[in-house]
């Protein structure tokens, strides 16, 4: 567990230019991985510091993942250069990694000297402690807990690591009323509680909290307490994380505690390439977080193309229940059913479908060249893992970083694959009608809609990683059944080229 920073991004040169940095990591890479720790480059910290709206005579700053102090130092430097300087600055910095404590103290001593030259009273407290273990008792108001200091400012690049549901961190956070599946969400939730009303937070985190079921409790908690003011997104995952096997994007956000929701939120983006310009736009707050969305997804509408896609999708009138459809995650978790898997079909097996069986518009099975098994034994022990023969629309749950589209749909057709039952592996989502198949006409229309560019552009506004959850697919608006069937009747081959799909979808639906 760590209070140090995560996969930081990119910002270099004079504003508004952003560029990627090779991150300075701990000498012990195993330790770095264990802590979820990457240190924040100075230009990133300076950009984050520039986002605050501070106009206070006293600044009480919390840096809960201080590392070597880049974030705090950047903010202190900015405040010392302000025409209206604060009279007093106090910093409380948590850092669990003992190797970072001396560099952190040295950095803050430099901040002290800078404040003295600017005529600002300065104090700093450095705590070589686990922030979660220290903060939870304060948030709970435990009788013998340390008195909770009050903060009106917080800047953070928290650790990024999943938390198991039975881990001590998960249980500790839960005792404070916080449900978090990743350390970064736990850090942000605790900081939110420690901030005074009107307090500002600037953070750089993975974008994964913007959607998905695992982060829904965190989103609800955060959006109720905090008012989003600014979101910055990086367009290029490969540029931002060159050298790291990262499957999702990071964002920087600025939020204010207890403030009324603004009419507009500033959304900015950059490509991630060195010296690339920052584009910026104002989005209506309800475009970013819809009051009608029960999932409270956060949408990053970055430009006219995204704006158009959002308008088109918002104009669709049907939901999956209205269509009589459901979407589920494939039931076969291969490592749990290992004893029943077969590389090739046998007399007592059913087809087992993986993403590797996608080939154009239809599933092609078996795939004799694939490393994945093609079949699963069909018996009483596996019956609950299988679904009856029929026509199903399948969507990959995970796409490679380099894939052009986030949503990739394909049709499983039992008329081409003759078997009474079929298994869909857990890396697939499948659309069905009460556990049974769709008509081919409806399946063709639905697959074409899901594969369209407009859906992909819209989906990327709230999904910043390569996973497509069934919850995400349920959250979409859909054309009516009649519209999908009309589209389906015009499709001879679901594997047509992207521009052909887009033309048909536009003509029939938009």
CATH topology description of the largest domain: Rossmann fold
In the CATH hierarchy, the architecture of the largest domain is: 3-Layer(aba) Sandwich
Q: Which class best fits the helix and strand makeup?
A: alpha/beta
Q: Mind summarizing the main beta sheet?
A: 9 strands, mixed
Subunit organisation of the chains: single chain
Strand percentage: 15-25%
Low-confidence stretches: 1-33, 237-247
Helix fraction by DSSP (H/I, runs of at least 4): 25-40%
Count of β-strands = 22
Outline the structure in words.
With 510 residues, this protein is α/β, with parallel strands linked by helices. It folds into two domains: 17-263, Rossmann fold (3-Layer(aba) Sandwich), CATH 3.40.50; 320-509, Adenine-n6-DNA-methyltransferase TaqI, Chain A, domain 2, CATH 3.90.220.20. It is built from 17 helices and 22 strands. It has helices spanning 29-35, 42-49, 70-81, 101-118, 131-140, 168-175, 183-194, 216-225, 237-240, 285-288, 304-314, 320-323, 440-450, 453-459, 470-475, 481-489, 498-509; strands spanning 17-18, 58-63, 88-94, 121-127, 151-156, 195-206, 226-234, 250-257, 264-270, 276-277, 279-284, 326-329, 341-342, 349-353, 358-359, 362-363, 375-377, 386-388, 391-396, 409-413, 421-424, 428-432. The strands form five sheets. Strands 4-3-2-5-6-8-7-9-11 form a nine-stranded mixed sheet. Helix 3 (70-81) runs parallel beside helix 4 (101-118) and helix 16 packs across helix 17 (498-509). 46% of the residues are buried. Mean pLDDT is 86; it is low at 1-33 and 237-247.
